[in-house]
UniProtKB/TrEMBL annotation:
<dbReference type="InterPro" id="IPR008278">
    <property type="entry name" value="4-PPantetheinyl_Trfase_dom"/>
</dbReference>
<protein>
    <submittedName>
        <fullName>Holo-[acyl-carrier protein] synthase</fullName>
    </submittedName>
</protein>
<dbReference type="GO" id="GO:0000287">
    <property type="term" value="F:magnesium ion binding"/>
</dbReference>
<dbReference type="GO" id="GO:0006633">
    <property type="term" value="P:fatty acid biosynthetic process"/>
</dbReference>
<keyword id="KW-0444">Lipid biosynthesis</keyword>
<dbReference type="InterPro" id="IPR037143">
    <property type="entry name" value="4-PPantetheinyl_Trfase_dom_sf"/>
</dbReference>
<dbReference type="Pfam" id="PF01648">
    <property type="entry name" value="ACPS"/>
</dbReference>
<keyword id="KW-0460">Magnesium</keyword>
<feature type="domain" description="4'-phosphopantetheinyl transferase">
    <location>
        <begin position="2"/>
        <end position="105"/>
    </location>
</feature>
<keyword id="KW-0275">Fatty acid biosynthesis</keyword>
<dbReference type="GO" id="GO:0008897">
    <property type="term" value="F:holo-[acyl-carrier-protein] synthase activity"/>
</dbReference>
<keyword id="KW-0276">Fatty acid metabolism</keyword>
<keyword id="KW-0443">Lipid metabolism</keyword>
<keyword id="KW-0808">Transferase</keyword>
<dbReference type="InterPro" id="IPR004568">
    <property type="entry name" value="Ppantetheine-prot_Trfase_dom"/>
</dbReference>
<dbReference type="InterPro" id="IPR002582">
    <property type="entry name" value="ACPS"/>
</dbReference>
<keyword id="KW-0479">Metal-binding</keyword>
Length: 110
């Protein structure tokens, strides 16, 4: 199965001004937040990770909380999805500009 999502990065820039850490933790794990906030424009990277989570939902039809899905980069920068700390068998690609982020998730057969 495949899923894709696109979002405006501005939405996440506004979210960072509006929400506290508790609210962010409902969507993102601490590892995801640490990665994104290590970047010059964290809202763009948060948007990309959110898109990957939404694409994952579309590809799998799983109904689990957003913060139980982690979109992490390995040491080479490749994006991996973890569901409740277990690596999910999927290919993930995230791209972004200053205005939009997009992600696609392709679930592999097990």
């Amino acid at each position: 199965m495949v899923g894709i999502d696109i979002e405006q990065t501005k939405r996440f820039e506004l979210m960072l001004k509006k929400f506290d850490k508790k609210t962010l933790h409902r969507i993102f794990s601490q590892k995801e937040l640490d990665y994104c906030f290590s970047k010059k424009f964290p809202h763009i990277h948060l948007c990309g990770k959110f898109c990957a989570k939404e694409a994952f939902f579309k590809a799998t039809n799983l109904k689990i909380p957003l913060n139980k899905i982690e979109v992490l980069n390995d040491k080479n920068g490749a994006v991996q999805i973890y569901v409740e700390d277990k690596k999910f068998n999927a290919d993930v690609s995230i791209s972004h500009t200053s205005e939009y982020a997009v992600a696609i998730v392709l679930c592999k057969a097990t």
